[in-house]
Design the sequence.
């Protein structure tokens, strides 16, 4: 009986040693892989593939995204509002759930909202009709245009005092009235335009050249009559074509 007990004890002791050895092997393998991971300092989640060489953490998915920590920041962008040393937290990214929500990045001194909005580019060169090299009469109308800018919703025009916009004032093409009443010149560099979208106003460009105003005799205007038959009690409306003249001299026969 003593022999049986001794044999049983020896078997149990052997089993214990085997279990202990397995745990040791498992622990050693775990430490090995952890050490390898710490040396590589890169991790891929969502795939068995290698992480991008430039990424410490590479998240891979075609159906899922990443949810940033949701925090409520103060209205004062210089308030860190989170634990830890704010001076060493440069590059920290959170999603603000407070006023003006969005993705914010801490630069070491203040929070900066990540803005995906892009200002429109500057318009291209100007087109004058008539050409800027052609003299115009006092009070003449000039059409000034620029090519449409992608994403622009309107255009912000600036004109010198000697020009005035007539009609639509925020399009890529405007009609301008010459306010000079005598011969002279207008510096076209005072004409500028910038494209505008929901993000704000983009860079502007200025025209070049000189608009020459000369005392040119206007062309003969044409008329349209509102009634074709006139009786003694009737009235008639005469509409004169705008030819850029100072005034229309009416002559009756």
Sequence:
């Amino acid at each position: 009986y003593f022999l049986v007990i001794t044999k049983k004890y020896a078997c149990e002791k052997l089993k214990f040693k085997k279990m202990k050895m397995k745990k040791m092997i498992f622990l050693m393998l775990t430490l090995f892989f952890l050490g390898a991971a710490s040396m590589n300092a890169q991790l891929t989640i969502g795939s068995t593939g290698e992480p991008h060489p430039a990424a410490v953490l590479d998240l891979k998915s075609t159906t899922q995204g990443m949810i940033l920590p949701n925090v409520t920041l103060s209205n004062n962008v210089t308030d860190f509002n989170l634990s830890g040393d704010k001076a060493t937290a440069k590059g920290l990214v959170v999603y603000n759930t407070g006023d003006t929500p969005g993705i914010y990045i801490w630069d070491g001194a203040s929070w900066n909202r990540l803005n995906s909005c892009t200002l429109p580019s500057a318009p291209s060169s100007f087109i004058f009709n008539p050409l800027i090299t052609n003299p115009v009469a006092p009070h003449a109308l000039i059409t000034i245009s620029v090519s449409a800018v992608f994403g622009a919703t309107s255009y912000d025009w600036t004109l010198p005092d000697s020009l005035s916009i007539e009609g639509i004032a925020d399009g890529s093409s405007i009609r301008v009235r010459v306010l000079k009443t005598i011969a002279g010149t207008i510096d076209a560099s005072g004409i500028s335009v910038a494209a505008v979208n929901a993000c704000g106003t983009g860079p502007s460009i200025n025209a070049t050249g000189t608009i020459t105003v000369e005392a040119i005799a206007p062309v003969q205007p044409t008329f349209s009559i509102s009634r074709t038959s006139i009786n003694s009690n009737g009235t008639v409306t005469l509409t004169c074509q705008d030819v850029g003249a100072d005034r229309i001299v009416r002559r009756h026969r």
About this structure: The first strand starts at residue 43 and ends at 45. Residues 1-5 have pLDDT under 50 and may be disordered.
